[in-house]
Give the backbone structure.
Amino acid sequence: MTDMTATTAGVAAASPGRSLVRLLEAAGPLLALILLMLIGTVTSDSFLGAENLSNVFTRSAIIGIIAVGATFVITAGGLDLSVGSLSALVAGMTIMFMNSAAATLGDGWLLVIAGIAFSLAIGAFAGFINGFMIVKGRVEAFIVTLGAMGIFRSVITWLADGGSISLDFSLRDTARPIYYGQVFGIAVPIIVLAVIAVVGELTLRRMRFGRHVAAIGSNRHVAFYSAIPVSRVRILTYVIQGLCVAIATVIYVPRLGAATPSTGLMWELEAIAAVIIGGTALSGGFGRIWGTIVGVLILGFISNILNLTGFISPYLNGAFQGAIIIIAVLLQRDRSQG
Amino acid sequence: MLNKLKSLIAAGAVAVAGLASPALAADAVIGVSIPAATHGWTGGLNYHTKRTIDRMKEAFPNIDFVLATSSSATQQVNDIEDLMARNINALVVLPFESDPLTEPVKAAKAKGVFIATVDRGLAEEGIEDLYVGGDNPQYGKAAAEYFKKKFPDGGKIVVMRGIPTAIDNIRIEAFNEALKGTKIEVLDMQYANWNPDKGFEVMQDYLQRFPQIDGVWAGDDDAALGAIEAIKQADRKNVTVLGGSGMNKVIKLVQDGHDMVDADIFYPPTLIIPAIELVTMKFATQAPINGRYVLGSPLITKDNAAEYYFPDAPY
Amino acid sequence: MSLLSFREVAKTYGVVPVLKGIDLAIEPGEVLALVGENGAGKSTLMRIAAGLADASAGTMLLDGAAAPATLQAAERAGIVMVHQEFCLAPHLTVAENVFLGREITRGLFTDRKAMETKARGLLAELGSAAPVRARLRDLPVSDWQMIELAKAFARQPKLILMDEPTAVLSATEAGNLFARIRAFRESGGSVIFTSHRLDEVKAIADRVAVLRDGQIVRVEATSDISEDEMAEAMVGRPLAEIYPPRRGMAKRKVLLSVAGLAAPGSVDDVSLDIREGEVLGISGLVGSGRTELFEALLGLRPAKCRSFVLRGEERKLPEAREAWALKLAYLTEDRKGKGLLLGKSLDQNVALTKGAITGSSWIDRRAERRDLETAVERYDIRTGRLDVTAGALSGGNQQKVLIAKTLGVEPDLIVFDEPTRGVDIGAKQQIYEIIAQLAAAGKAIVVISSEMQEIVGLSDRVLVMRRGRIAGELSGEAISENDIIRFAMGLEETSPQEEAPH
């Protein structure tokens, strides 16, 4: 019976009407973004200014880099709720490291590089622990990362005595350019985001690893029966997420020069929302990095437009955001077949 | 989610603390229920609470303390019930929100527990025996007066609101009230949730939107720090920034002289200290204590900054 | 008057005509079989009868009046469909599933006891002992089919529509089903069923209608038509021998030899040899451990063994990836759940295993496309376009894609698990041809199958399993259905160790 309907479905797929629908599907997030930008242009004079756009892109880079990592995790069928708390932890510990290492390494670029290396190490390690518990420990990803979320946040709150952890003033100036600097007129965070997005997209689409990630998310059994190293790949996606968190944190810290108790709050939800808006299926099997980037920008522009215009009561900001997210997702078809 | 886990840890801490009580029977058990350290101010609150409890324990070993921190009003209701189950003699509570906490505190009072409320009152009058609070209306007024003095001939200011709560409403109301009839123009009020990252973003967008901004009231010092960075990045001059709450970092800026910040409003988390001390005294020394103590929220300027500066505290 | 009749019924999906001018009538108390290749229109006709689809033209009459056009109306009128792809709820119990949607109530509450008693009765009539309180997901797939059937009978139908009802049943269970169908027919009920198993059609149906390209090409009483004639009518051309000719019994080299293989819960102390150029058939009742044995052998489930000798060298039992790298391949019986990524493209599917073992880090899309084109040619994979998803193909073509994928790594041993389940006669023949060619080229082939004919037709040597152990071994001319069944049922016990030469 299914054979019959399967063939007709296959035949139906050939007709030109369907490929147009498919194209619209794929372009969904992009259309939503363009629509949003139109709304912004119409409602505010300052929206399309170079400075405003640069501000929003730069601010979005932090969530954006985290969301690229999340795209890998979700495409493989997993989930990581701990990214926000991990950012806080990495930020706090890196600042503490740099403050204490300044004595031996000086306060120049060598210290900054050491700080970056330290961040990456912590991020990768935390990602590995998450991945190991989920894959080898066979505990649900939701549960493990929920627990990790609480643990990471508690540890940094304890290390900070409930307060903020700040970079020593002398170090702030050295680190400042990471967020505020520009290369050829483009803010550094935007460049970093672009590079990571390109690398991510190529890996997910064109490299063996990316294919394995999608296969595992699509049907883990099939992947196992097809000689794919399922456990190894799944753990790696969490390590990648951890590394992305670390990179995002490295960019975040120089902005305020401190890690505060509100650092990373809700970042996991924003990152996951961006991934979903962008078209990656929450159930796994299909990932779209460029879609994630579009999703991040959509979220960034929403709050930007709300700030730039006065006509929506600030009480309703949350409702506006929620509505846009739901609309963006409705514009896409259900990809859980993938 | 995070909150649930934190409460779990908090509840666990309470349980462990209970298990670890000394064998000798205490003369009194004092329960303390405060919000968890979700942002700078509450971080400081927790810090000072723990230090005060430790100090009191040392000074009066025959008094027991049980501390519960909660991250939501509903969680706090549960915590108070748990504290009641431990037969506390007194309750020092900083209510998350006045309305939902009124019934449980009233129930505790009915069972003979001595009630001390801190920073916020309850929905009904007369339940608490002791109130130690900040003056939220004065907070808003002080901010308004500051800008009135700064810009006697009028000026354009933007405002950042805090976490949507009763406190924020009271402050903003008082602020708006005090500005009535002046030539100060409030360009917009958006929520920055007393959060430095949000303060940064909102300030960036304000700067895009309004070519002229004379002053910023960021709501509190956390958001002010974010606003300062944004203004620095945009290279805008002659913008005055006012925060609030007396964070040591900002007070230092005031002390040392800063081109944007020259004042702060005192509203520290240290107000928990006298509350705990007074309640401890009542049970340790049998001295009757009750009443309302409203600590003022004066403006901190360079002249008096040294008084309010605590470099070692986390807030 | 006929119970159900089709008059000039036609159906088109979009621009594609799937049924053209069907005239067919079923009498009360009759069992009618629908046979045809995949794509011939059998399932569509069934769906129209069940009320799941509308005819694009023509009329359907039930007892002389217009037939019901929706599923609910059809069920109320006494037409019940038993689905091939199970419409059951895994988390509910057997009894709850049998009465799904038609729960027996006592006042406001469901009467659990009554449902359980009735369900037990219905299942007993089908010869099934499935425990009525057990949750569906804890039971094997053959039980599910029985429960699906019990569900149909619970609705006291006049006409039952069944799609491939014996696909997952063992011989005994199929026998029980046929007995029940006969009883149903005696009481005046009618059955229309589709099947690829022409021997079953001969056994149970009164009449058979052969569909080809959306039209009925022959309708006969089953006593008047042979299986070969049925197959020829389906395909439209004379059939050569379905099974490739048997080759001689040359002395063949042992590729792989395992002793004391055990997997907890399913395989118990199995020792066997697999030889190059030989087709080794594995038979046994459903649940005897055939699939589990070879999954255990090739690292797909936890297992241990006393010894594992591959190409003359002793080594430990390989893990899944290792097995592939050692050129040992397993082709799963579950092509939709474990074999192919239904949502992904064909070239990706074909390249998946090869890429995982020997592929470079960078994907060469053009090479994959070329490989797909070669595979389509070599295995006659019928698909209109090359860029469709695997889920869009028919069962037979999906199976060929799976074969192409498995052979992509050029293995020396290939285990085919139920290679022709749900596959039409034309594709079946092609798959047998492929197997024969591989054996002739010196590969070691293992075929696990529940179709006795297939085992007898293909194998040089047969191992029969029973309860996780090898119950018997037959070679060459000695292979017969009878002996296989006797071993499978435990009616003849021969110690396999004495038979297998080492």
